[in-house]
Amino acid sequence: MQLIRGKAWRFGDNVDTDAIIPGKYLRSADPGVFAAHVLEGIDPDFAKKVKKGDVILAGKNFGSGSSREQAVLALKHAGVACIVAASFARIFFRNAINVGLPIIEAKADCREGDAVEIDLGKGKVTCSGNSFSGVRLPGFLLDILMDGGLVEHRKKHKNDIPD
After folding, report:
1. Among 87, 114, 115, 116, residue whose Cα is nearest residue 103
2. pTM for this structure?
3. Of 44, 75, 113, 143, which one's alpha carbon is 20 to 30 angstroms from that of 10?
4. What distance, in Å, lies between the first and last C-alpha atoms of the chain?
5. Could you tell me the residue ranges of all domains in the chain?
6. What does the alpha-carbon distance between residue 91 and residue 112 come to, in Å, rounded to a whole number?
7. Which long-range contacts (CB under 8 A, 24 or more apart) does 133-141 make?
8. Is 102 exposed, middle or buried (0-12, 13-18, 19+ CB in 10 A)?
9. Cα angle at 132 between 59 and 56, to 5 degrees?
10. At what angle do helices 90-99 and 139-146 cross, to 10 degrees?
11. 63 with 19: CB under 8 angstroms?
12. CA proximity to 85, closest of 15, 150, 18
């Protein structure tokens, strides 16, 4: 899973959690509802257009706003394979790791629709024949992502911690 390939979707700076999943859908606990309305605050038709394995490329401060984990769940359940952004809001970054949605901080100059390749292990993004270096995740965070998130990681390694 360290190598991710998908179609690029472009978004700008300061994409907040209200734009990712509007508050009116938070009464539901169904991730399918979140996925059906993902990024509705920016592109009302995004949920119908995004395909499993697609990649979001964004500017600075992606995921700002509230601490709602539903924003990350909406993206993951909509099929987004990875988010590449110049920077992430801290709580969004943490939520993404916790639920197992790959992210990478990089300023990647890709066009919407480009084929994108992300090497999480190297912290590299490639599109249109150009490579962009990003921030490589520390090994322990990469391990959590590869295990599918924090809960799955703890299940897998429950016997690794001495009493």
Report:
1. 87
2. 0.92
3. 143
4. 32
5. 3-156
6. 26
7. 133/106, 134/84, 134/104, 134/105, 134/106, 134/107, 134/108, 135/104, 135/105, 135/106, 137/104, 141/97
8. buried
9. 40
10. 50
11. no
12. 15
Q: Which CATH superfamily is domain 3-156 in?
A: Aconitase, domain 4 (3.20.19.10)
Nearest of 120, 108, 117 to residue 144 by alpha carbon = 120
Q: Which amino acid is at 131?
A: S
Q: Which amino acid, residue 104?
A: I
